[in-house]
Amino acid sequence: MKEKVVYWLTGSQTLYGEDVLSHVAAHSEEMADYVDRFMPVTVKYLTTCKSSDEVVEAIRKVNADDNCIGIITWCHTFSPAKMWIKGLKMLQKPMCHFATQYNERLPYATIDMDFMNENQAAHGDREFGYIVARLRMDNKVVVGYYKDPDALKELASWCKVAAGYAFSKTVKVCRFSDNMRDVAVTEGDKVEAHIKLGWQVDYYPIGDLVDYIGTVSEKEVDALMEEYEQKYTMATKRVDVVREQARYEIAIDRFCKDKGGYVGIVDHFGSLHGLNQLPGLAIQDLQSKGYGFGAEGDWKIAALGAVMQYMADQKGTGLMEDYTYDLKEGLCLGAHMLEVSPQFAAMKPEIQVHPLGIGDKSDPARLVFEGIMSPEAVAVSMVDMGDRMRLIVQKIELVQYPQKMPNLPTGGLMWKYKPNFKEGVAAWIYAGGAHHTVVSSVVTAQEVVDLGNMWGMEVVLIDENTKIDEFKRQLIWSDQIWKAKL
Ligand code: MN
User: 207-221 pLDDT, tens per residue?
Assistant: First the structure.
Protein backbone atom coordinates (compact mmCIF):
# COMPACT_ATOMS: atom_id res chain seq x y z
CA MET A 1 0.00 0.00 0.00
CA LYS A 2 2.96 2.33 0.65
CA GLU A 3 3.52 2.40 -3.14
CA LYS A 4 0.25 4.28 -3.50
CA VAL A 5 0.43 8.07 -3.32
CA VAL A 6 -1.79 10.69 -1.77
CA TYR A 7 -0.91 14.19 -2.95
CA TRP A 8 -1.02 17.10 -0.51
CA LEU A 9 -2.42 20.27 -2.09
CA THR A 10 -2.23 23.56 -0.23
CA GLY A 11 -4.52 26.45 -0.96
CA SER A 12 -3.33 30.07 -0.93
CA GLN A 13 -3.33 33.18 -3.16
CA THR A 14 -0.86 35.84 -4.40
CA LEU A 15 -2.15 38.60 -2.10
CA TYR A 16 0.40 37.98 0.64
CA GLY A 17 3.58 38.30 -1.46
CA GLU A 18 6.47 35.97 -2.31
CA ASP A 19 7.83 35.81 1.21
CA VAL A 20 4.70 34.39 2.72
CA LEU A 21 4.20 32.02 -0.22
CA SER A 22 7.70 30.62 0.19
CA HIS A 23 6.92 29.95 3.86
CA VAL A 24 3.60 28.33 2.89
CA ALA A 25 5.37 25.98 0.46
CA ALA A 26 8.14 25.12 2.91
CA HIS A 27 5.72 24.48 5.75
CA SER A 28 3.47 22.35 3.53
CA GLU A 29 6.39 20.20 2.44
CA GLU A 30 7.56 19.79 6.02
CA MET A 31 4.06 18.85 7.17
CA ALA A 32 3.45 16.38 4.34
CA ASP A 33 6.82 14.72 5.02
CA TYR A 34 6.00 14.40 8.71
CA VAL A 35 2.51 13.05 8.08
CA ASP A 36 3.87 10.56 5.53
CA ARG A 37 5.78 8.69 8.25
CA PHE A 38 2.51 7.64 9.89
CA MET A 39 0.49 6.74 6.79
CA PRO A 40 0.01 3.34 5.13
CA VAL A 41 0.42 5.12 1.77
CA THR A 42 2.98 7.71 0.64
CA VAL A 43 1.92 11.30 1.28
CA LYS A 44 3.68 13.80 -0.95
CA TYR A 45 3.35 17.59 -1.14
CA LEU A 46 2.36 18.46 -4.72
CA THR A 47 1.94 22.20 -4.91
CA THR A 48 0.43 25.37 -3.48
CA CYS A 49 -2.49 26.50 -5.61
CA LYS A 50 -2.93 30.24 -6.05
CA SER A 51 -5.29 30.45 -9.03
CA SER A 52 -7.97 28.52 -10.87
CA ASP A 53 -5.50 27.53 -13.61
CA GLU A 54 -3.08 26.16 -11.05
CA VAL A 55 -5.81 24.09 -9.38
CA VAL A 56 -6.85 22.67 -12.76
CA GLU A 57 -3.25 21.82 -13.59
CA ALA A 58 -2.76 20.10 -10.22
CA ILE A 59 -5.98 18.09 -10.49
CA ARG A 60 -5.01 17.00 -14.02
CA LYS A 61 -1.80 15.58 -12.55
CA VAL A 62 -3.74 13.85 -9.77
CA ASN A 63 -6.22 12.27 -12.17
CA ALA A 64 -3.57 11.13 -14.65
CA ASP A 65 -1.28 9.55 -12.06
CA ASP A 66 -2.29 5.87 -11.84
CA ASN A 67 -0.41 5.52 -8.59
CA CYS A 68 -2.28 8.37 -6.94
CA ILE A 69 -5.30 7.27 -4.92
CA GLY A 70 -6.47 10.61 -3.54
CA ILE A 71 -5.62 14.08 -2.28
CA ILE A 72 -5.29 15.86 1.03
CA THR A 73 -6.19 19.54 0.88
CA TRP A 74 -5.39 22.27 3.38
CA CYS A 75 -5.49 26.04 3.39
CA HIS A 76 -2.50 27.52 5.20
CA THR A 77 -3.74 31.01 4.35
CA PHE A 78 -6.98 32.27 2.90
CA SER A 79 -7.62 30.79 -0.56
CA PRO A 80 -10.58 32.33 -2.41
CA ALA A 81 -12.64 29.27 -3.21
CA LYS A 82 -14.01 30.23 -6.62
CA MET A 83 -10.55 29.28 -7.85
CA TRP A 84 -11.19 25.67 -6.70
CA ILE A 85 -14.47 25.15 -8.60
CA LYS A 86 -13.17 24.06 -12.00
CA GLY A 87 -10.50 21.79 -10.58
CA LEU A 88 -12.68 20.12 -7.98
CA LYS A 89 -15.35 19.42 -10.59
CA MET A 90 -12.71 17.51 -12.56
CA LEU A 91 -11.39 15.54 -9.58
CA GLN A 92 -11.87 11.80 -10.02
CA LYS A 93 -10.28 10.64 -6.76
CA PRO A 94 -11.22 10.81 -3.08
CA MET A 95 -10.41 13.98 -1.17
CA CYS A 96 -9.70 14.54 2.50
CA HIS A 97 -9.80 18.09 3.83
CA PHE A 98 -7.24 18.25 6.63
CA ALA A 99 -8.25 21.13 8.92
CA THR A 100 -4.87 21.53 10.53
CA GLN A 101 -2.24 24.15 11.24
CA TYR A 102 1.54 24.56 11.04
CA ASN A 103 1.62 25.86 14.62
CA GLU A 104 -0.12 24.00 17.41
CA ARG A 105 -0.48 26.98 19.75
CA LEU A 106 -0.51 30.76 19.29
CA PRO A 107 2.65 32.78 19.98
CA TYR A 108 0.74 34.90 22.47
CA ALA A 109 3.63 37.22 23.36
CA THR A 110 4.57 38.12 19.80
CA ILE A 111 1.47 37.60 17.68
CA ASP A 112 0.84 40.42 15.18
CA MET A 113 -1.00 40.86 11.87
CA ASP A 114 1.90 39.37 9.85
CA PHE A 115 1.53 36.15 11.81
CA MET A 116 -2.26 36.29 11.38
CA ASN A 117 -2.00 36.64 7.60
CA GLU A 118 0.46 33.81 7.23
CA ASN A 119 -1.34 31.42 9.57
CA GLN A 120 -5.06 31.54 9.01
CA ALA A 121 -6.19 27.97 8.47
CA ALA A 122 -9.36 28.61 10.49
CA HIS A 123 -10.25 31.30 7.97
CA GLY A 124 -9.12 29.55 4.79
CA ASP A 125 -10.54 26.12 5.66
CA ARG A 126 -14.03 27.61 5.94
CA GLU A 127 -13.93 29.30 2.55
CA PHE A 128 -12.71 26.03 1.02
CA GLY A 129 -15.27 23.98 2.95
CA TYR A 130 -18.12 26.10 1.61
CA ILE A 131 -17.33 25.40 -2.02
CA VAL A 132 -16.93 21.66 -1.33
CA ALA A 133 -20.34 21.65 0.38
CA ARG A 134 -21.82 23.70 -2.48
CA LEU A 135 -20.45 21.18 -4.99
CA ARG A 136 -22.06 18.38 -2.93
CA MET A 137 -18.79 16.51 -2.72
CA ASP A 138 -18.88 13.70 -0.19
CA ASN A 139 -15.36 14.25 1.12
CA LYS A 140 -13.82 13.54 4.52
CA VAL A 141 -12.84 16.26 6.99
CA VAL A 142 -10.14 15.43 9.54
CA VAL A 143 -9.47 18.03 12.24
CA GLY A 144 -6.40 18.44 14.46
CA TYR A 145 -2.76 19.44 14.76
CA TYR A 146 -0.76 17.58 12.12
CA LYS A 147 1.44 15.94 14.75
CA ASP A 148 -1.46 14.93 16.97
CA PRO A 149 -1.60 11.10 17.16
CA ASP A 150 -5.41 11.03 17.02
CA ALA A 151 -5.56 13.24 13.92
CA LEU A 152 -2.82 11.14 12.29
CA LYS A 153 -4.71 7.96 13.11
CA GLU A 154 -7.85 9.33 11.49
CA LEU A 155 -5.90 10.45 8.45
CA ALA A 156 -4.16 7.07 8.16
CA SER A 157 -7.54 5.43 8.32
CA TRP A 158 -8.82 7.60 5.48
CA CYS A 159 -5.72 6.82 3.39
CA LYS A 160 -6.36 3.11 3.90
CA VAL A 161 -9.96 3.54 2.76
CA ALA A 162 -8.89 5.55 -0.30
CA ALA A 163 -6.45 2.76 -1.18
CA GLY A 164 -9.26 0.22 -0.74
CA TYR A 165 -11.49 2.31 -2.98
CA ALA A 166 -8.82 2.36 -5.70
CA PHE A 167 -8.28 -1.39 -5.26
CA SER A 168 -12.03 -1.99 -5.56
CA LYS A 169 -11.92 -0.64 -9.11
CA THR A 170 -9.53 -3.46 -10.03
CA VAL A 171 -11.47 -6.31 -8.40
CA LYS A 172 -12.36 -9.28 -10.59
CA VAL A 173 -14.42 -12.17 -9.25
CA CYS A 174 -14.32 -15.64 -10.76
CA ARG A 175 -17.53 -17.57 -10.13
CA PHE A 176 -17.68 -21.30 -10.70
CA SER A 177 -21.38 -21.30 -9.98
CA ASP A 178 -24.50 -19.21 -10.17
CA ASN A 179 -26.31 -18.34 -6.96
CA MET A 180 -27.82 -21.19 -4.99
CA ARG A 181 -31.31 -22.06 -6.19
CA ASP A 182 -34.10 -20.12 -4.46
CA VAL A 183 -31.74 -18.07 -2.26
CA ALA A 184 -32.57 -14.35 -2.41
CA VAL A 185 -30.07 -12.28 -0.48
CA THR A 186 -26.99 -13.49 -2.33
CA GLU A 187 -28.47 -12.22 -5.62
CA GLY A 188 -27.64 -8.83 -7.08
CA ASP A 189 -27.19 -6.68 -10.15
CA LYS A 190 -23.71 -7.39 -11.44
CA VAL A 191 -23.80 -4.61 -14.01
CA GLU A 192 -24.69 -2.09 -11.31
CA ALA A 193 -21.84 -3.41 -9.15
CA HIS A 194 -19.47 -2.99 -12.09
CA ILE A 195 -20.63 0.60 -12.64
CA LYS A 196 -20.68 1.70 -9.00
CA LEU A 197 -17.98 -0.41 -7.38
CA GLY A 198 -15.75 -1.37 -10.30
CA TRP A 199 -16.27 -5.11 -9.76
CA GLN A 200 -15.99 -7.37 -12.78
CA VAL A 201 -17.86 -10.59 -12.03
CA ASP A 202 -17.33 -13.44 -14.51
CA TYR A 203 -18.71 -16.95 -14.69
CA TYR A 204 -16.74 -20.06 -15.69
CA PRO A 205 -18.15 -23.58 -15.88
CA ILE A 206 -16.76 -25.80 -13.12
CA GLY A 207 -15.52 -28.14 -15.89
CA ASP A 208 -12.93 -25.52 -16.86
CA LEU A 209 -11.54 -25.76 -13.33
CA VAL A 210 -11.67 -29.57 -13.43
CA ASP A 211 -9.41 -29.45 -16.52
CA TYR A 212 -6.95 -27.29 -14.55
CA ILE A 213 -7.02 -29.69 -11.60
CA GLY A 214 -5.97 -32.42 -14.02
CA THR A 215 -2.79 -30.53 -14.90
CA VAL A 216 -1.48 -30.18 -11.32
CA SER A 217 1.64 -32.30 -10.78
CA GLU A 218 2.38 -34.47 -7.74
CA LYS A 219 5.50 -32.38 -7.15
CA GLU A 220 3.42 -29.24 -6.86
CA VAL A 221 1.11 -31.00 -4.43
CA ASP A 222 4.15 -32.13 -2.38
CA ALA A 223 5.32 -28.54 -2.06
CA LEU A 224 1.93 -27.23 -0.90
CA MET A 225 1.57 -30.17 1.53
CA GLU A 226 4.87 -29.09 3.10
CA GLU A 227 3.47 -25.58 3.48
CA TYR A 228 0.32 -26.99 5.09
CA GLU A 229 2.39 -29.02 7.53
CA GLN A 230 4.27 -25.91 8.63
CA LYS A 231 1.21 -23.75 9.09
CA TYR A 232 -1.28 -26.31 10.35
CA THR A 233 -1.44 -29.44 12.49
CA MET A 234 -2.17 -32.56 10.46
CA ALA A 235 -4.92 -34.18 12.53
CA THR A 236 -5.91 -36.85 10.03
CA LYS A 237 -4.35 -39.95 8.57
CA ARG A 238 -6.30 -39.56 5.35
CA VAL A 239 -3.46 -37.84 3.49
CA ASP A 240 -4.95 -38.47 0.05
CA VAL A 241 -8.02 -36.45 1.00
CA VAL A 242 -5.79 -33.53 2.03
CA ARG A 243 -3.70 -33.85 -1.14
CA GLU A 244 -6.90 -33.54 -3.14
CA GLN A 245 -7.56 -30.17 -1.50
CA ALA A 246 -3.99 -29.09 -2.23
CA ARG A 247 -4.61 -29.95 -5.89
CA TYR A 248 -7.75 -27.80 -5.86
CA GLU A 249 -5.92 -24.90 -4.29
CA ILE A 250 -3.12 -24.95 -6.85
CA ALA A 251 -5.60 -25.24 -9.72
CA ILE A 252 -7.89 -22.44 -8.49
CA ASP A 253 -4.96 -20.11 -7.84
CA ARG A 254 -3.47 -20.81 -11.28
CA PHE A 255 -6.83 -20.44 -12.99
CA CYS A 256 -7.41 -17.04 -11.33
CA LYS A 257 -3.95 -15.81 -12.35
CA ASP A 258 -4.06 -17.21 -15.90
CA LYS A 259 -7.46 -15.74 -16.68
CA GLY A 260 -6.52 -12.17 -15.91
CA GLY A 261 -6.02 -11.76 -12.20
CA TYR A 262 -9.14 -12.73 -10.31
CA VAL A 263 -8.94 -11.82 -6.62
CA GLY A 264 -12.37 -13.13 -5.64
CA ILE A 265 -13.58 -16.74 -5.90
CA VAL A 266 -17.11 -18.12 -5.78
CA ASP A 267 -18.25 -21.71 -5.71
CA HIS A 268 -21.30 -23.67 -4.58
CA PHE A 269 -21.55 -27.05 -2.85
CA GLY A 270 -24.36 -28.02 -5.23
CA SER A 271 -22.35 -27.32 -8.35
CA LEU A 272 -19.24 -29.48 -8.18
CA HIS A 273 -19.52 -31.76 -11.19
CA GLY A 274 -16.16 -33.50 -11.61
CA LEU A 275 -14.85 -32.68 -8.11
CA ASN A 276 -14.73 -35.33 -5.38
CA GLN A 277 -14.89 -32.90 -2.46
CA LEU A 278 -16.21 -29.44 -1.77
CA PRO A 279 -13.11 -27.19 -1.71
CA GLY A 280 -12.64 -26.57 2.03
CA LEU A 281 -9.02 -26.45 3.12
CA ALA A 282 -8.21 -25.15 -0.39
CA ILE A 283 -10.51 -22.14 -0.06
CA GLN A 284 -9.45 -21.52 3.54
CA ASP A 285 -5.79 -21.42 2.60
CA LEU A 286 -6.52 -19.23 -0.44
CA GLN A 287 -8.38 -16.77 1.81
CA SER A 288 -5.34 -16.68 4.11
CA LYS A 289 -3.36 -15.48 1.08
CA GLY A 290 -5.70 -12.60 0.31
CA TYR A 291 -8.41 -14.01 -1.95
CA GLY A 292 -11.97 -12.98 -1.19
CA PHE A 293 -14.38 -15.89 -1.08
CA GLY A 294 -18.14 -16.14 -1.40
CA ALA A 295 -20.01 -19.40 -0.87
CA GLU A 296 -23.16 -20.55 -2.68
CA GLY A 297 -22.58 -18.19 -5.58
CA ASP A 298 -22.28 -15.10 -3.38
CA TRP A 299 -20.11 -12.87 -5.59
CA LYS A 300 -20.86 -9.71 -3.55
CA ILE A 301 -19.17 -11.20 -0.50
CA ALA A 302 -16.23 -12.48 -2.56
CA ALA A 303 -15.56 -8.99 -3.94
CA LEU A 304 -16.18 -7.22 -0.63
CA GLY A 305 -13.91 -9.77 1.07
CA ALA A 306 -11.11 -9.07 -1.42
CA VAL A 307 -11.39 -5.30 -0.85
CA MET A 308 -11.49 -5.59 2.94
CA GLN A 309 -8.62 -8.09 2.92
CA TYR A 310 -6.57 -5.56 0.97
CA MET A 311 -7.41 -2.86 3.52
CA ALA A 312 -6.61 -5.23 6.41
CA ASP A 313 -3.26 -6.26 4.94
CA GLN A 314 -4.62 -9.81 4.84
CA LYS A 315 -5.19 -10.10 8.56
CA GLY A 316 -8.29 -10.97 10.62
CA THR A 317 -10.72 -10.71 7.70
CA GLY A 318 -12.89 -13.12 5.75
CA LEU A 319 -16.21 -14.77 4.95
CA MET A 320 -18.46 -15.35 7.94
CA GLU A 321 -22.00 -16.56 8.37
CA ASP A 322 -24.39 -15.87 11.25
CA TYR A 323 -25.20 -19.45 12.15
CA THR A 324 -26.70 -20.20 15.54
CA TYR A 325 -27.47 -18.29 18.78
CA ASP A 326 -26.84 -18.81 22.45
CA LEU A 327 -29.95 -16.92 23.51
CA LYS A 328 -29.17 -17.19 27.20
CA GLU A 329 -25.77 -15.51 26.84
CA GLY A 330 -26.80 -13.28 23.93
CA LEU A 331 -24.14 -14.68 21.61
CA CYS A 332 -23.93 -15.77 18.01
CA LEU A 333 -21.77 -18.60 16.76
CA GLY A 334 -20.60 -17.75 13.26
CA ALA A 335 -19.05 -20.29 10.96
CA HIS A 336 -19.54 -21.85 7.58
CA MET A 337 -19.73 -25.49 6.65
CA LEU A 338 -16.01 -25.43 5.73
CA GLU A 339 -14.67 -22.22 4.37
CA VAL A 340 -13.75 -20.10 7.41
CA SER A 341 -10.48 -18.22 6.93
CA PRO A 342 -7.56 -19.25 9.16
CA GLN A 343 -7.00 -15.50 9.61
CA PHE A 344 -9.64 -15.92 12.32
CA ALA A 345 -7.78 -18.71 14.16
CA ALA A 346 -6.82 -18.18 17.81
CA MET A 347 -4.71 -21.35 17.70
CA LYS A 348 -2.78 -23.40 15.17
CA PRO A 349 -5.58 -24.78 12.99
CA GLU A 350 -5.97 -28.53 12.64
CA ILE A 351 -6.49 -30.23 9.30
CA GLN A 352 -9.35 -32.67 9.85
CA VAL A 353 -11.48 -34.83 7.58
CA HIS A 354 -15.17 -35.32 8.30
CA PRO A 355 -18.24 -36.18 6.29
CA LEU A 356 -20.32 -33.28 4.97
CA GLY A 357 -24.04 -33.77 5.27
CA ILE A 358 -24.95 -31.82 2.16
CA GLY A 359 -23.69 -31.84 -1.41
CA ASP A 360 -23.35 -35.62 -1.86
CA LYS A 361 -19.57 -35.54 -2.22
CA SER A 362 -16.68 -37.32 -0.48
CA ASP A 363 -15.56 -36.28 3.01
CA PRO A 364 -13.68 -32.99 2.62
CA ALA A 365 -10.54 -31.88 4.44
CA ARG A 366 -10.92 -28.59 6.30
CA LEU A 367 -9.21 -26.44 8.92
CA VAL A 368 -10.76 -26.61 12.37
CA PHE A 369 -10.02 -24.00 15.02
CA GLU A 370 -11.42 -21.74 17.71
CA GLY A 371 -11.81 -18.11 16.69
CA ILE A 372 -9.98 -15.03 17.87
CA MET A 373 -11.25 -12.52 20.41
CA SER A 374 -11.43 -8.83 19.63
CA PRO A 375 -13.26 -6.07 21.53
CA GLU A 376 -13.81 -4.23 18.27
CA ALA A 377 -14.74 -6.01 15.09
CA VAL A 378 -17.13 -5.36 12.27
CA ALA A 379 -19.58 -7.44 10.24
CA VAL A 380 -20.45 -6.12 6.79
CA SER A 381 -23.16 -7.12 4.36
CA MET A 382 -24.15 -5.80 0.96
CA VAL A 383 -27.68 -6.32 -0.29
CA ASP A 384 -29.47 -5.36 -3.49
CA MET A 385 -32.58 -3.31 -2.68
CA GLY A 386 -33.81 -3.52 -6.26
CA ASP A 387 -32.88 0.04 -7.22
CA ARG A 388 -29.53 0.27 -5.42
CA MET A 389 -27.08 -1.62 -3.22
CA ARG A 390 -27.22 -1.10 0.55
CA LEU A 391 -24.13 -1.54 2.71
CA ILE A 392 -24.93 -2.70 6.24
CA VAL A 393 -22.19 -2.29 8.83
CA GLN A 394 -22.44 -3.64 12.36
CA LYS A 395 -20.03 -3.34 15.24
CA ILE A 396 -19.52 -6.67 16.99
CA GLU A 397 -17.30 -7.95 19.78
CA LEU A 398 -15.51 -11.23 19.19
CA VAL A 399 -15.52 -13.26 22.40
CA GLN A 400 -14.18 -16.53 23.67
CA TYR A 401 -16.27 -19.67 23.24
CA PRO A 402 -18.07 -20.06 26.60
CA GLN A 403 -17.47 -23.81 26.44
CA LYS A 404 -15.50 -26.25 24.32
CA MET A 405 -17.29 -27.63 21.26
CA PRO A 406 -15.33 -30.82 20.53
CA ASN A 407 -17.74 -32.04 17.85
CA LEU A 408 -17.81 -28.82 15.84
CA PRO A 409 -15.89 -29.72 12.65
CA THR A 410 -15.20 -26.19 11.44
CA GLY A 411 -13.48 -22.93 12.26
CA GLY A 412 -15.71 -20.31 13.83
CA LEU A 413 -16.13 -17.06 15.66
CA MET A 414 -18.34 -16.21 18.62
CA TRP A 415 -19.59 -12.68 19.02
CA LYS A 416 -21.79 -10.16 20.80
CA TYR A 417 -23.79 -7.68 18.76
CA LYS A 418 -23.83 -3.89 19.28
CA PRO A 419 -25.69 -2.15 20.82
CA ASN A 420 -26.96 -5.34 22.53
CA PHE A 421 -28.25 -8.73 21.44
CA LYS A 422 -31.93 -7.85 20.95
CA GLU A 423 -31.52 -4.51 19.21
CA GLY A 424 -28.44 -5.60 17.30
CA VAL A 425 -30.15 -8.62 15.80
CA ALA A 426 -33.41 -6.74 15.16
CA ALA A 427 -31.64 -3.82 13.45
CA TRP A 428 -29.71 -6.19 11.17
CA ILE A 429 -32.92 -7.99 10.20
CA TYR A 430 -34.87 -4.74 9.66
CA ALA A 431 -32.07 -3.50 7.37
CA GLY A 432 -32.22 -6.72 5.33
CA GLY A 433 -28.67 -7.76 6.23
CA ALA A 434 -27.58 -11.11 4.81
CA HIS A 435 -26.47 -14.32 6.50
CA HIS A 436 -23.16 -14.05 4.65
CA THR A 437 -20.91 -11.25 5.85
CA VAL A 438 -17.32 -10.17 5.71
CA VAL A 439 -16.08 -9.93 9.29
CA SER A 440 -12.90 -8.07 10.17
CA SER A 441 -11.06 -7.42 13.41
CA VAL A 442 -8.68 -5.08 11.56
CA VAL A 443 -10.83 -2.87 9.34
CA THR A 444 -12.99 -0.60 11.54
CA ALA A 445 -16.68 0.22 11.22
CA GLN A 446 -15.76 3.85 10.48
CA GLU A 447 -13.49 2.72 7.65
CA VAL A 448 -16.26 0.66 6.06
CA VAL A 449 -18.67 3.59 6.41
CA ASP A 450 -16.11 5.87 4.75
CA LEU A 451 -15.63 3.31 1.99
CA GLY A 452 -19.39 3.17 1.42
CA ASN A 453 -19.44 6.96 1.20
CA MET A 454 -16.64 6.92 -1.38
CA TRP A 455 -18.63 4.38 -3.36
CA GLY A 456 -21.57 6.77 -3.15
CA MET A 457 -23.87 4.10 -1.80
CA GLU A 458 -26.45 3.84 0.97
CA VAL A 459 -24.69 2.98 4.23
CA VAL A 460 -26.48 1.76 7.35
CA LEU A 461 -24.50 1.61 10.59
CA ILE A 462 -25.49 -0.42 13.65
CA ASP A 463 -23.33 0.46 16.64
CA GLU A 464 -23.39 1.18 20.39
CA ASN A 465 -25.65 4.22 19.80
CA THR A 466 -28.34 2.45 17.74
CA LYS A 467 -31.89 2.83 19.09
CA ILE A 468 -34.32 0.57 17.31
CA ASP A 469 -37.20 3.04 16.81
CA GLU A 470 -34.85 5.70 15.48
CA PHE A 471 -33.16 3.08 13.33
CA LYS A 472 -36.44 2.02 11.71
CA ARG A 473 -37.29 5.66 10.93
CA GLN A 474 -33.81 6.11 9.49
CA LEU A 475 -34.42 3.17 7.13
CA ILE A 476 -37.66 4.77 5.90
CA TRP A 477 -36.01 8.17 5.32
CA SER A 478 -33.00 6.56 3.75
CA ASP A 479 -35.20 4.64 1.34
CA GLN A 480 -36.88 7.86 0.21
CA ILE A 481 -33.61 9.76 -0.09
CA TRP A 482 -32.02 7.03 -2.18
CA LYS A 483 -35.07 6.75 -4.41
CA ALA A 484 -34.87 10.51 -5.00
CA LYS A 485 -31.14 10.30 -5.75
CA LEU A 486 -31.59 7.72 -8.50
MN1 MN B 1 -23.56 -19.92 3.27
Answer: 999 999 999 999 999
